[in-house]
Design a protein that fits this description.
It is a single chain. This protein has a domain at 30-67. Helix content is 60%, strand content 0%. The chain has three helices and no strands. The relative contact order is 0.12. It is mainly alpha-helical and 104 residues long. The radius of gyration is 24 Å and the shape is elongated.
Length: 104
């Protein structure tokens, strides 16, 4: 099998267009700068390793990475909301007189 040349590595915009078909590159899913950065990093890895895959395989790998990234961000947001709720529930009650004025 003939090794693929670096010219066969897809352009960032071409990959973004293909990912846009899945709806992952839209503002409602993930911020575009985040998606662009991930695509650039993956294409950089391909250039470094010299293992150029078919376009469909590259897009599929990036799609899976974006799905995982989106899921991890959603989980982090839920944990953050839970922590803020718990910290609000754990606040000490407000006393009518400060503790230093109480005498026993």
């Amino acid at each position: 099998m003939k090794p693929r040349s670096r010219r066969e590595i897809p352009a960032v915009n071409k990959v973004l267009d293909a990912l846009g078909e899945y709806g992952l590159a839209t503002a409602s899913k993930l911020p575009r700068p985040l998606v662009v950065d991930l695509v650039r990093r993956e294409l950089s890895k391909i250039r470094r390793n010299g293992e150029v895959q078919e376009f469909g395989l590259t897009v599929e790998r990036l799609r899976r990475s974006l799905v995982l990234l989106r899921a991890s961000r959603a989980i982090a947001a839920r944990i953050s909301r839970m922590r803020s709720r718990c910290s609000a529930e754990l606040k000490p009650p407000r006393w009518s007189t400060p503790a230093r004025q109480l005498s026993f």
